[in-house]
Design goal:
Strand order of the largest sheet: 3-2-1-4-5-6-7
Shape: globular
Helix content: 40-55%
Oligomer: single chain
Number of domains: 2
CATH topology of the largest domain: Rossmann fold
Low-confidence stretches: none
Distance between the termini: 6 Å
Order of helices and strands: EHEHEHEHEHEEHHEHEEEHEHEHEHHH
Structural class: alpha/beta
Number of helices: 14
Largest sheet: 7 strands, parallel
Protein backbone atom coordinates (compact mmCIF):
# COMPACT_ATOMS: atom_id res chain seq x y z
CA UNK A 1 0.00 0.00 0.00
CA UNK A 2 1.31 3.44 -0.85
CA UNK A 3 2.69 5.70 1.86
CA UNK A 4 -0.20 8.15 2.13
CA UNK A 5 -3.63 6.60 1.90
CA UNK A 6 -6.49 8.90 0.86
CA UNK A 7 -10.04 7.97 1.93
CA UNK A 8 -13.19 9.93 1.18
CA UNK A 9 -16.19 9.02 3.37
CA UNK A 10 -19.72 10.21 2.67
CA UNK A 11 -23.17 10.01 4.20
CA UNK A 12 -24.94 10.94 7.39
CA UNK A 13 -28.28 12.38 8.39
CA UNK A 14 -28.51 10.27 11.54
CA UNK A 15 -26.17 9.03 14.23
CA UNK A 16 -26.71 5.55 12.83
CA UNK A 17 -24.84 6.62 9.70
CA UNK A 18 -22.36 9.04 11.25
CA UNK A 19 -20.96 6.82 14.00
CA UNK A 20 -19.91 3.96 11.68
CA UNK A 21 -18.33 6.51 9.35
CA UNK A 22 -16.25 8.02 12.15
CA UNK A 23 -15.35 4.55 13.48
CA UNK A 24 -14.03 3.54 10.05
CA UNK A 25 -12.06 6.78 9.81
CA UNK A 26 -10.56 6.22 13.26
CA UNK A 27 -9.53 2.68 12.31
CA UNK A 28 -7.80 3.94 9.17
CA UNK A 29 -5.99 6.65 11.15
CA UNK A 30 -4.90 4.20 13.84
CA UNK A 31 -3.29 1.86 11.32
CA UNK A 32 -2.13 4.54 8.86
CA UNK A 33 -1.31 7.70 10.86
CA UNK A 34 -0.30 9.56 7.70
CA UNK A 35 -3.59 8.80 5.94
CA UNK A 36 -5.60 11.74 4.64
CA UNK A 37 -9.31 11.38 5.40
CA UNK A 38 -12.10 13.73 4.41
CA UNK A 39 -15.89 13.57 4.70
CA UNK A 40 -18.79 14.71 2.52
CA UNK A 41 -22.19 15.34 4.08
CA UNK A 42 -25.47 17.11 3.43
CA UNK A 43 -25.73 20.81 4.26
CA UNK A 44 -27.75 21.43 7.40
CA UNK A 45 -27.57 17.83 8.63
CA UNK A 46 -26.00 16.68 11.88
CA UNK A 47 -22.84 15.33 10.26
CA UNK A 48 -21.78 18.92 9.53
CA UNK A 49 -21.29 19.38 13.30
CA UNK A 50 -20.54 15.85 14.51
CA UNK A 51 -17.72 15.05 12.07
CA UNK A 52 -15.62 18.20 12.73
CA UNK A 53 -16.08 17.53 16.45
CA UNK A 54 -14.27 14.24 15.86
CA UNK A 55 -11.39 16.05 14.18
CA UNK A 56 -12.15 15.42 10.50
CA UNK A 57 -12.83 17.95 7.72
CA UNK A 58 -16.20 17.78 5.95
CA UNK A 59 -17.68 19.39 2.85
CA UNK A 60 -21.44 19.89 2.54
CA UNK A 61 -23.57 19.18 -0.53
CA UNK A 62 -26.87 20.92 -1.29
CA UNK A 63 -28.93 17.74 -1.29
CA UNK A 64 -32.01 16.28 0.40
CA UNK A 65 -34.46 13.44 -0.01
CA UNK A 66 -37.87 13.36 -1.63
CA UNK A 67 -40.54 15.05 0.48
CA UNK A 68 -43.67 12.96 1.02
CA UNK A 69 -45.72 16.03 0.10
CA UNK A 70 -45.15 15.76 -3.63
CA UNK A 71 -46.04 19.39 -4.38
CA UNK A 72 -43.62 20.82 -1.82
CA UNK A 73 -41.01 23.41 -2.77
CA UNK A 74 -38.28 20.97 -1.70
CA UNK A 75 -39.34 18.49 -4.36
CA UNK A 76 -39.37 21.15 -7.09
CA UNK A 77 -35.81 22.07 -6.05
CA UNK A 78 -34.62 18.45 -6.06
CA UNK A 79 -33.40 18.33 -9.70
CA UNK A 80 -31.37 21.49 -9.14
CA UNK A 81 -29.96 20.08 -5.89
CA UNK A 82 -28.97 16.87 -7.64
CA UNK A 83 -27.20 18.70 -10.49
CA UNK A 84 -25.44 20.98 -8.01
CA UNK A 85 -24.36 18.03 -5.84
CA UNK A 86 -23.08 15.98 -8.77
CA UNK A 87 -21.02 18.90 -10.07
CA UNK A 88 -19.64 19.67 -6.61
CA UNK A 89 -18.90 15.97 -6.07
CA UNK A 90 -16.96 15.91 -9.34
CA UNK A 91 -14.82 18.82 -8.15
CA UNK A 92 -14.29 17.26 -4.70
CA UNK A 93 -13.11 13.94 -6.16
CA UNK A 94 -10.85 15.63 -8.72
CA UNK A 95 -9.25 17.79 -6.03
CA UNK A 96 -8.91 15.19 -3.26
CA UNK A 97 -7.97 12.24 -5.51
CA UNK A 98 -9.10 9.47 -3.12
CA UNK A 99 -7.80 5.92 -3.34
CA UNK A 100 -11.21 4.66 -2.21
CA UNK A 101 -14.58 6.08 -1.21
CA UNK A 102 -16.78 4.77 1.59
CA UNK A 103 -20.56 5.26 1.61
CA UNK A 104 -22.47 4.74 4.85
CA UNK A 105 -25.94 5.78 3.68
CA UNK A 106 -27.66 9.15 3.72
CA UNK A 107 -28.40 11.74 1.03
CA UNK A 108 -24.85 12.97 0.40
CA UNK A 109 -23.53 9.48 -0.24
CA UNK A 110 -25.51 9.20 -3.47
CA UNK A 111 -24.08 11.92 -5.72
CA UNK A 112 -20.57 11.71 -4.24
CA UNK A 113 -20.16 7.98 -4.76
CA UNK A 114 -21.93 7.94 -8.11
CA UNK A 115 -19.49 10.53 -9.41
CA UNK A 116 -16.43 8.92 -7.77
CA UNK A 117 -17.22 5.46 -9.18
CA UNK A 118 -17.82 7.00 -12.62
CA UNK A 119 -14.30 8.44 -12.35
CA UNK A 120 -12.90 4.99 -11.58
CA UNK A 121 -12.57 5.24 -7.78
CA UNK A 122 -13.44 1.95 -5.99
CA UNK A 123 -16.46 2.19 -3.68
CA UNK A 124 -17.08 0.36 -0.41
CA UNK A 125 -20.63 0.55 0.95
CA UNK A 126 -21.43 -0.06 4.62
CA UNK A 127 -25.05 -0.99 5.31
CA UNK A 128 -26.06 -1.00 8.98
CA UNK A 129 -29.61 -2.33 8.81
CA UNK A 130 -31.30 -5.55 7.76
CA UNK A 131 -33.38 -3.47 5.33
CA UNK A 132 -31.06 -1.18 3.35
CA UNK A 133 -31.63 2.51 2.81
CA UNK A 134 -32.53 3.87 -0.61
CA UNK A 135 -29.11 5.45 -1.23
CA UNK A 136 -27.19 2.21 -0.74
CA UNK A 137 -29.69 0.34 -2.88
CA UNK A 138 -29.21 2.87 -5.69
CA UNK A 139 -25.42 2.55 -5.43
CA UNK A 140 -25.29 -1.28 -5.35
CA UNK A 141 -24.20 -1.62 -8.97
CA UNK A 142 -21.38 0.88 -8.44
CA UNK A 143 -19.94 -0.73 -5.30
CA UNK A 144 -17.00 -3.12 -5.39
CA UNK A 145 -17.65 -4.34 -1.84
CA UNK A 146 -20.76 -4.10 0.36
CA UNK A 147 -20.17 -4.65 4.08
CA UNK A 148 -23.34 -5.72 5.89
CA UNK A 149 -24.38 -6.66 9.40
CA UNK A 150 -27.04 -9.27 8.64
CA UNK A 151 -27.40 -12.47 6.70
CA UNK A 152 -29.82 -12.68 3.79
CA UNK A 153 -28.81 -9.34 2.25
CA UNK A 154 -28.50 -10.93 -1.21
CA UNK A 155 -32.19 -10.00 -1.54
CA UNK A 156 -31.02 -6.40 -1.97
CA UNK A 157 -27.38 -6.53 -3.12
CA UNK A 158 -25.28 -8.60 -5.56
CA UNK A 159 -24.29 -11.73 -3.66
CA UNK A 160 -20.70 -11.77 -4.90
CA UNK A 161 -20.02 -8.30 -3.46
CA UNK A 162 -21.45 -8.88 0.03
CA UNK A 163 -19.19 -9.34 3.05
CA UNK A 164 -20.77 -9.90 6.46
CA UNK A 165 -18.69 -7.79 8.82
CA UNK A 166 -21.18 -6.46 11.35
CA UNK A 167 -21.43 -2.81 12.35
CA UNK A 168 -18.61 -0.78 13.92
CA UNK A 169 -19.21 -0.13 17.61
CA UNK A 170 -17.59 2.17 20.13
CA UNK A 171 -14.28 0.56 20.98
CA UNK A 172 -14.40 2.08 24.46
CA UNK A 173 -17.28 -0.30 25.25
CA UNK A 174 -15.22 -3.36 24.36
CA UNK A 175 -12.06 -2.16 26.08
CA UNK A 176 -13.78 -1.02 29.28
CA UNK A 177 -12.14 -2.67 32.28
CA UNK A 178 -14.73 -1.94 34.95
CA UNK A 179 -16.49 -4.06 37.55
CA UNK A 180 -20.19 -4.25 38.31
CA UNK A 181 -19.53 -2.72 41.72
CA UNK A 182 -17.82 0.27 40.10
CA UNK A 183 -20.80 0.68 37.77
CA UNK A 184 -23.28 0.54 40.64
CA UNK A 185 -21.30 3.08 42.65
CA UNK A 186 -21.05 5.44 39.66
CA UNK A 187 -24.83 5.54 39.21
CA UNK A 188 -25.69 5.36 42.91
CA UNK A 189 -27.49 2.04 42.50
CA UNK A 190 -27.95 -0.82 44.95
CA UNK A 191 -25.58 -3.70 44.06
CA UNK A 192 -27.96 -6.19 45.73
CA UNK A 193 -30.77 -5.46 43.28
CA UNK A 194 -31.32 -6.65 39.72
CA UNK A 195 -31.07 -3.80 37.25
CA UNK A 196 -32.94 -3.01 34.03
CA UNK A 197 -31.33 -0.46 31.70
CA UNK A 198 -33.80 1.51 29.57
CA UNK A 199 -32.34 3.34 26.55
CA UNK A 200 -34.42 5.09 23.93
CA UNK A 201 -31.83 7.23 22.17
CA UNK A 202 -30.68 10.78 22.81
CA UNK A 203 -34.15 12.23 22.17
CA UNK A 204 -35.92 9.49 24.11
CA UNK A 205 -38.56 6.93 23.20
CA UNK A 206 -41.98 8.14 24.31
CA UNK A 207 -43.53 4.67 24.49
CA UNK A 208 -40.72 3.28 26.67
CA UNK A 209 -40.72 6.37 28.89
CA UNK A 210 -44.46 6.20 29.51
CA UNK A 211 -44.29 2.50 30.35
CA UNK A 212 -41.46 3.05 32.84
CA UNK A 213 -43.09 6.11 34.38
CA UNK A 214 -46.29 4.18 35.02
CA UNK A 215 -44.43 1.32 36.70
CA UNK A 216 -41.88 2.98 38.98
CA UNK A 217 -44.25 3.25 41.93
CA UNK A 218 -44.94 -0.47 42.13
CA UNK A 219 -41.68 -2.30 41.52
CA UNK A 220 -40.62 -5.42 43.45
CA UNK A 221 -38.13 -4.71 46.22
CA UNK A 222 -35.32 -6.58 44.45
CA UNK A 223 -35.50 -4.62 41.16
CA UNK A 224 -34.22 -1.19 40.14
CA UNK A 225 -34.18 0.81 36.91
CA UNK A 226 -31.40 2.77 35.22
CA UNK A 227 -33.52 4.95 32.98
CA UNK A 228 -32.19 7.17 30.18
CA UNK A 229 -35.18 9.34 29.28
CA UNK A 230 -33.71 11.41 26.44
CA UNK A 231 -33.83 15.19 26.38
CA UNK A 232 -37.50 15.49 25.34
CA UNK A 233 -38.80 13.88 28.51
CA UNK A 234 -39.90 16.31 31.21
CA UNK A 235 -39.27 15.31 34.79
CA UNK A 236 -36.86 15.58 37.65
CA UNK A 237 -33.56 13.76 37.25
CA UNK A 238 -31.63 11.91 39.91
CA UNK A 239 -31.72 8.87 42.17
CA UNK A 240 -35.02 7.65 43.56
CA UNK A 241 -36.16 4.58 45.44
CA UNK A 242 -36.58 2.70 42.13
CA UNK A 243 -33.11 3.53 40.75
CA UNK A 244 -31.90 6.46 38.65
CA UNK A 245 -33.45 8.66 35.97
CA UNK A 246 -31.27 10.77 33.68
CA UNK A 247 -31.64 12.45 30.29
CA UNK A 248 -28.35 11.15 28.96
CA UNK A 249 -25.81 8.52 30.01
CA UNK A 250 -22.23 9.45 29.15
CA UNK A 251 -20.64 6.29 30.54
CA UNK A 252 -22.44 3.64 28.55
CA UNK A 253 -19.68 1.16 29.39
CA UNK A 254 -20.73 1.41 33.03
CA UNK A 255 -24.43 1.36 32.17
CA UNK A 256 -24.10 -1.89 30.25
CA UNK A 257 -21.98 -3.38 33.03
CA UNK A 258 -24.66 -2.54 35.61
CA UNK A 259 -27.51 -4.02 33.58
CA UNK A 260 -28.90 -7.51 34.04
CA UNK A 261 -31.39 -6.75 31.26
CA UNK A 262 -31.50 -4.04 28.59
CA UNK A 263 -34.67 -2.55 27.08
CA UNK A 264 -33.89 -0.66 23.88
CA UNK A 265 -35.10 0.53 20.52
CA UNK A 266 -33.83 -1.67 17.69
CA UNK A 267 -31.53 0.68 15.84
CA UNK A 268 -28.72 -1.11 14.05
CA UNK A 269 -25.92 0.29 16.21
CA UNK A 270 -27.71 -0.37 19.50
CA UNK A 271 -28.20 -3.97 18.43
CA UNK A 272 -24.54 -4.25 17.45
CA UNK A 273 -23.34 -2.95 20.82
CA UNK A 274 -25.72 -5.10 22.84
CA UNK A 275 -24.77 -8.18 20.81
CA UNK A 276 -21.02 -7.63 21.12
CA UNK A 277 -21.37 -7.23 24.88
CA UNK A 278 -23.66 -10.23 25.30
CA UNK A 279 -26.49 -8.46 27.14
CA UNK A 280 -29.93 -9.98 27.52
CA UNK A 281 -32.32 -7.61 25.79
CA UNK A 282 -35.94 -6.76 25.03
CA UNK A 283 -36.24 -4.72 21.85
CA UNK A 284 -39.08 -2.24 21.34
CA UNK A 285 -38.76 -1.32 17.65
CA UNK A 286 -39.71 2.20 16.69
CA UNK A 287 -42.71 2.28 14.32
CA UNK A 288 -41.59 5.66 12.95
CA UNK A 289 -38.80 4.45 10.66
CA UNK A 290 -38.58 3.66 6.96
CA UNK A 291 -40.01 0.28 5.94
CA UNK A 292 -40.31 -0.68 9.64
CA UNK A 293 -36.62 -1.65 9.49
CA UNK A 294 -36.18 -1.72 13.28
CA UNK A 295 -38.64 -4.60 13.54
CA UNK A 296 -36.70 -6.41 10.81
CA UNK A 297 -33.46 -5.74 12.71
CA UNK A 298 -34.90 -7.12 15.95
CA UNK A 299 -36.56 -10.15 14.38
CA UNK A 300 -33.19 -11.21 13.02
CA UNK A 301 -32.21 -11.89 16.65
CA UNK A 302 -35.60 -12.98 17.98
CA UNK A 303 -35.81 -15.75 15.39
CA UNK A 304 -32.46 -17.04 16.69
CA UNK A 305 -33.65 -17.00 20.33
CA UNK A 306 -31.13 -14.21 21.02
CA UNK A 307 -33.56 -11.48 22.13
CA UNK A 308 -37.16 -10.76 23.06
CA UNK A 309 -39.47 -8.31 21.30
CA UNK A 310 -42.29 -6.10 22.54
CA UNK A 311 -44.27 -4.24 19.91
CA UNK A 312 -44.42 -0.48 20.41
CA UNK A 313 -48.22 -0.51 20.36
CA UNK A 314 -48.27 -3.12 23.16
CA UNK A 315 -45.47 -1.66 25.31
CA UNK A 316 -47.78 0.32 27.59
CA UNK A 317 -49.33 -2.85 28.98
CA UNK A 318 -46.78 -5.57 28.28
CA UNK A 319 -43.25 -4.12 28.45
CA UNK A 320 -42.71 -3.89 32.20
CA UNK A 321 -44.39 -7.24 33.03
CA UNK A 322 -42.22 -8.87 30.34
CA UNK A 323 -39.08 -7.24 31.77
CA UNK A 324 -39.87 -8.30 35.33
CA UNK A 325 -40.73 -11.89 34.38
CA UNK A 326 -37.52 -12.14 32.31
CA UNK A 327 -35.46 -10.90 35.27
CA UNK A 328 -36.87 -13.66 37.45
CA UNK A 329 -36.05 -16.36 34.90
CA UNK A 330 -32.32 -17.00 35.36
CA UNK A 331 -32.26 -19.74 32.72
CA UNK A 332 -33.81 -17.44 30.13
CA UNK A 333 -31.40 -14.60 30.99
CA UNK A 334 -28.38 -16.84 30.54
CA UNK A 335 -29.73 -18.28 27.29
CA UNK A 336 -30.35 -14.79 25.87
CA UNK A 337 -26.87 -13.64 26.91
CA UNK A 338 -25.20 -16.65 25.32
CA UNK A 339 -27.21 -16.54 22.09
CA UNK A 340 -26.79 -12.82 21.43
CA UNK A 341 -23.07 -12.90 22.24
CA UNK A 342 -22.67 -15.69 19.66
CA UNK A 343 -24.18 -13.37 17.04
CA UNK A 344 -22.10 -10.35 18.05
CA UNK A 345 -19.28 -9.11 15.81
CA UNK A 346 -16.89 -7.11 18.00
CA UNK A 347 -14.23 -7.00 15.25
CA UNK A 348 -16.47 -5.34 12.66
CA UNK A 349 -14.38 -2.18 12.31
CA UNK A 350 -11.18 -4.14 11.72
CA UNK A 351 -12.92 -6.41 9.20
CA UNK A 352 -14.26 -3.41 7.27
CA UNK A 353 -10.76 -1.92 7.22
CA UNK A 354 -9.42 -5.17 5.71
CA UNK A 355 -12.00 -4.94 2.93
CA UNK A 356 -11.04 -1.31 2.33
CA UNK A 357 -7.38 -2.30 2.08
CA UNK A 358 -8.20 -4.94 -0.54
CA UNK A 359 -9.84 -2.28 -2.72
CA UNK A 360 -6.85 0.04 -2.42
CA UNK A 361 -4.43 -2.75 -3.37
Amino acid sequence: MKKQLKVLISGGGTGGHIFPAVAIANAVKEKYPDAEISFVGAQGKMEMEKVPAEGYPITGLWISGLNRKLLSADNFALPFKLISSLWKSFRIVKKFKPDVTVGVGGFASGPLNYMASTLGIPLLLQEQNSYPGITNKLLKSKAKTICVAYEGMEKYFPKDRIVITGNPIRQALLKADVSRDEAMKHFGLDPQKKTVLFIGGSLGARTINRAVEAAVGSLPDNVQFLWQTGKHFEGEEGNFNYGKRTQFIKRMDLAYKAADLVVSRAGALSISEISALGKACIFVPSPNVTEDHQTKNAMNLVERDAALLCKDVEAGEQLIPLALSTLENEALLKQLQSSILHLGKPNATEDILKELEKLVR
